C-alpha cells in the first residue's frame, strides 16, 4: 500500500535549511479556515483545532464502514498560515490588524464529496461548526523560503535575509503577504527553539 511521510517525501517543501532557497511550489490541496485578529486570541486557537479535527477525520476515514477506495497511509501535514493585513496603512506589528488563512495540506484521495462527509461527521461528533472550513487547491508558484528558528516576533530578521538573497539573484518579493509553516508546537516548545518555514512569492 502507498505510504506518504512529508518529512521524507516532501523535504524540499517542508524541511528547508536556515539559508534562503528559491523553489517552485506546485498546486496542492488544503482544508482551510479564514479569520482575522491576534493569533494569540481564542478565535485563532479554535480555528486551528477545527483544522486538525477535520484533517484527522480524513486520516482516520479508513475505519468507516465504507472507507475511501483509494485511501492510503500518510502522516498528517503541518499547519500552515498565509498572513496579510486588514488595513494596509497600519503596521504589521499590530497583531489585531492581521488577517489569515490557516490550512493543512491534504492527501490526493480527498475530493469534494469526501470533504463534505468529513465536515458533516466532524460537526456531529465534535459538536462544532465545521461547515465554516473550506477545501480547495492553491498554487504558490515561484517562492523564496528558509527555516526560521526562534520566536515568531523575530521573523523580520529572516525576511530581511531572504529579501537580500532574492535581490542578489535578480528576483524581488511580489507582495507583503507571506506564508508560515509551523514545524513546532508552541505549547510544548521554547520560543527560542521554534521552527517555522517562512515563504513569500517572488518574480
Short characterization:
This protein is of the alpha+beta class and 203 residues long. The protein has 5 helices and 8 strands, in the order βααβαβββαβαββ.
Low-confidence stretches: none
Order of helix and strand elements from N to C terminus: EHHEHEEEHEHEE
What is the percentage of strand-forming residues? 25-35%
The chain-level structural class is alpha+beta
Descriptive report:
There is one protein chain. The protein is an alpha+beta fold. Helix content is 28%, strand content 31%. The protein has helices at residues 6-9, 11-14, 42-59, 112-126, 155-169; strands at 3-4, 21-36, 73-74, 79-85, 98-105, 134-149, 178-182, 195-201. The mean pLDDT is 96.
Descriptive tags:
8 strands, 5 helices, globular, six-stranded antiparallel beta barrel, 203 residues, alpha+beta, two-stranded parallel ribbon
Question: In terms of topology, how is this protein built?
Answer:
Layout: E1 3-4, H1 6-9, H2 11-14, E2 21-36, H3 42-59, E3 73-74, E4 79-85, E5 98-105, H4 112-126, E6 134-149, H5 155-169, E7 178-182, E8 195-201
Parallel strand pairs: 1-3
Antiparallel strand pairs: 2-5, 2-6, 4-5, 4-7, 6-8, 7-8
Helix pairs in contact: 3-4
